[in-house]
Request: fold
Amino acid sequence: AKEEWSDPMFDLARQFAAADTIVVAAPYWDLSFPAALKQYFEQINAMGITFQYTPEGTPEPLCKADKLYYVMTAGGAFVPEEYGFGYVKTLAQSFYGIGQVKLIKALGLDIYGADVEQIIDEAIRNINI
Reply:
């Protein structure tokens, strides 16, 4: 069967595959990220656009980007990063071939008495682009 990727349903996948750098921003919800972000990844995970399978059945990246920045905010301070960020990092490196995946986080934003501006400023200072 002929592969046809011109349908508008593949627009996001084509956009992702063509990007030089990717920035994903999401709040930390229920040990992960919002369901809408999961739906986004399901939409862009398009064989023939963002990846393809080798004859051995392993993913072969088709994306242009070499960097992905994952910006995460959280109301609390207890944030096991391996859940949401780990999922994104695995997809980025294993399927999309994005070698540099960096987590940028601002935690404790909802803790009573927290200096939200200082927390955000510190997160910005820790960005190494």
In short: Strands lie at 21-27, 51-53, 59-61, 67-73, 100-106.
